Amino acid sequence: MHLTILRTQEEFDKHETEWNEMLSISSASHVPFLRHEYLSTWWRTLGGGEWEHGDLFTILMRNDDGLLRGIAPLFFSNNCDGEPAIMLLGSIEISDYLDFITHDSEANMFFDTLIDFLGSEQAPPWRVIDLFNILDDSSTLPALYSAADRRGWHISDQELQPCPRITLPGDWETYLAGIHKKQRHEIRRKMRRAENYGQPVRWYIVEDESSLDGEIDDFLSLMAQDPEKSRFLTDVMRTHMRQSVHKAFRQGWLQLSFLEVGVVKTAGYLNFDFANNILVYNSGLNFEYGSLSPGWVLLGHLLKWAIDNKRNSFDFMRGDEPYKYRFGGVARYVKRMSIRRESTTE
Fold first, then answer.
1. pLDDT, tens digit, for every residue of 137-187?
2. Residue 130, φ and ψ in degrees, nearest 5
């Protein structure tokens, strides 16, 4: 294997086509957060301001024929514990799922090569390889554990957050029959009440790029009605989200939707329609219309749309909010894997 280290944005941006091609056929985690355009945007804003500084240290691995066989999307910075760390691009807060990109059949060779390189003097002076948000069923975890253990390094992992997901059946009624009776009744009641509301109620998915900036503004305004989300939406985070939404739209995997009462937006969902799965990224509500349960109503329409359009799953991603389970979500988990050259004591 031959390694190329990408240290600048210019170097990074040269590899979009081959990066995305490899992701589509080779990744243990085929998710939008590993797309080149997403990570390029993330790096430009350092996660919407999550990191004050960092050094790009992304590694491309090629065979003797020059074909790309693996990608380690990494950067170097002090982690959240203040330690010099090698981390995955996208870490931590705004990228639900992260991973390395390589063929399963070549994973052991990829991680052996990667670990040997990170243990050399050519690597930054890290104290920990600190990897967040890797799904617990990713083939990366055992392969990376084996490679680090071979060197005698110390590995620990912890369960971070549940990621409830619904595996979608073939039709809406089958879906409803598969969830708790009380929840089934609530979904039907709330959607029916919206249909008979005193003002016209409609929902839609944004399809016109010429209106996208205005729709993004409206979505951010709905988000900001929640005090916690309002604090999250700093100027740099708004810039990051706007750029990411535009990139997702142009690549064909944005699902930005709204529920309107008359001309007033009462709920919005920012989802990704990616690899035949719906991934729920963020949401916003107009609390003046709480009696209508606009979030539940819109979510019901989006679930029915996903089923009617033959999507495989509806993934709520990170977070243990009760509504995700009431709608039938079954939890997976993301993990944090930490690798050290020497053991640490408490």
1. 999 999 999 999 999 999 999 999 999 999 999 999 999 999 999 999 999
2. -120, 105
Q: Are 148 and 177 within one domain?
A: no
Q: Is the dihedral of CA 240, 243, 247, 250 positive or negative?
A: positive
Q: Are residues 203 and 292 in the same domain?
A: yes
Tell me the percentage of the chain whose pLDDT exceeds 70.
99
Residue 261 and residue 299 in one domain: yes
Above 70 in pLDDT, residue 15?
A: yes
Q: Are residues 188 and 152 in the same domain?
A: no
- The residue segments making up the domain with residue 307 are 169-311
Q: In Å, what is the CA distance from 49 to each residue of 38, 46, 53, 240?
A: 15, 5, 9, 9
Q: What is the mean pLDDT of residues 94-107?
A: 94
Predicted confidence (pLDDT) at residue 346 exceeds the cutoff of 50: no
- How many domains does one find in the chain? 2
The closest of 282, 286, 290 to 321, measured between CA atoms, is 282
Residue 285 maps to which CATH number?
3.40.630.30
Please indicate, yes or no, whether residues 282 and 180 belong to a single structural domain of this protein.
yes
DSSP-assigned states of every residue in 217-242: HHHHHHHTTSHHHHHH--HHHHHHHH
Which of 311, 341, 293 lies closest to 129 in space, CA to CA? 341
For tokens 């740099």, the residue is 236
pLDDT of residue 315: 98
The residue length of the chain stands at 346
Q: Which of 128, 142, 147, 3 is nearest to 76 (CA)?
A: 128
Torsion of Cα atoms, 323 then 324 then 325 then 327, to 10°:
80
DSSP assigned state of 33: G
Tens digits of per-residue pLDDT, 247-293?
A: 999 999 999 999 999 999 999 999 999 999 999 999 999 999 999 99
Q: Is there a contact between 328 and 174 (Cβ–Cβ < 8 Å)?
A: no
